[in-house]
Amino acid sequence: MYLFSMVSDFFFPNMGGVEEHIYNLSQCLIQKGHKVVIMTHSYGDRIGIRYMTNGLKVYYLPIKVFYNQCVLPTMVCNIPLLRYILIRERIEIVHGHSAFSALAHEAMLIGNLMGLKTVFTDHSLFGFADASAVITNKFIQISLADCNHCICVSHIGKENTVLRAKVDSKRVSVIPNAVDTYSFTPGPSHRSRSQIVVVVVSRLVYRKGVDLTAQIIADLCLKYKEVSFLIAGDGPKRW
């Protein structure tokens, strides 16, 4: 049995892919017999310790949000609080999620200083040229320099992380997000023996590649008459 700490600025009640990933991964680890504790910042009046399904313990830390649901990336100001929780819960592995989460990077840094194993999961792609990308990429270069291992959710994601963070590709593994095909099977009205249905479930925003999806739909449907698309999601790119 291992004692894990999942750390990210993004967790329930906030909704998104990272939040769902952390929750489901934690539940699977608990079912395997491991202990999991989650650390995130407070959301409104949700401050302190809460318990979720199967005794999953969540620390909603009293740290103010700086920008876009992330805390201020000081890297040092929260050392006493995070160190106390890591010692109290006897954590062995610190698992940070999302390149945008300052809290995750700070917890991994503290974990390294305490001699704990650290793992980082990068959930999405990011650019190289604009000011935001330059700052974020330099930030994760520092953070991942001493990280024991990195996980990416796709092969192109691994290539993106290796280039941005300048980490050795041997320290990066690809573990694709699981898809429950029973939950995402088109109904009878969308399916026939001669038809191929491509199901897309996504937040409809630019950084998710919706513009590229729209282009390939036009090309594929013109070339293959038996192919159709079923899209689930919402966002500014819904049109």
Keywords:
transferase; 6 helices; alpha/beta; 8-stranded mixed sheet; globular; GPI-anchor biosynthesis
Main pleated-sheet profile: 8 strands, mixed
Order of helices and strands: EHEEEEEHEHEHEHEEHE
Question: Quaternary arrangement of the chains shown?
Answer: single chain
Could you tell me the number of beta strands?
12
CATH class of the largest domain: Alpha Beta
CATH topology annotation of the largest domain: Rossmann fold
- CATH H level, superfamily name of the largest domain: Glycogen Phosphorylase B
Strand order across the largest sheet: 3-4-2-1-7-8-9-10
Number of domains: 2
Secondary structure category: alpha/beta
Domain PIGA GPI anchor biosynthesis: 41-130
EC number: 2.4.1.198
Organism: Exocentrus adspersus
GO molecular function: phosphatidylinositol N-acetylglucosaminyltransferase activity
Describe what you observe in this structure:
It is globular, with a radius of gyration of 20 Å. The model has no long low-confidence stretch (mean pLDDT 91). It has 2 domains: 3-174, Rossmann fold; 188-232, no CATH class. Strands 3-4-2-1-7-8-9-10 form an 8-stranded mixed sheet, with helices on both faces. Strands 5-6 form a two-stranded antiparallel sheet. The protein has helices at residues 17-31, 79-88, 102-113, 131-144, 155-165, 210-223, and strands spanning 3-7, 35-41, 48-51, 57-61, 65-67, 70-71, 93-97, 117-122, 149-152, 172-174, 196-201, 227-232. The chain contains 6 helices and 12 strands. Helices cover 32% and strands 23% of the residues. Helix 2 (79-88) crosses helix 3. The protein starts with a strand and ends in a 7-residue tail after the last strand. Helix 3 links the parallel strand 7 and strand 8 (117-122). With 239 residues, the protein is α/β, with parallel strands linked by helices. It holds the Pfam family PIGA. One of its GO terms (cellular component) is glycosylphosphatidylinositol-N-acetylglucosaminyltransferase (GPI-GnT) complex. Its EC number is 2.4.1.198. This is phosphatidylinositol N-acetylglucosaminyltransferase. It is an enzyme of class 2 (transferase).
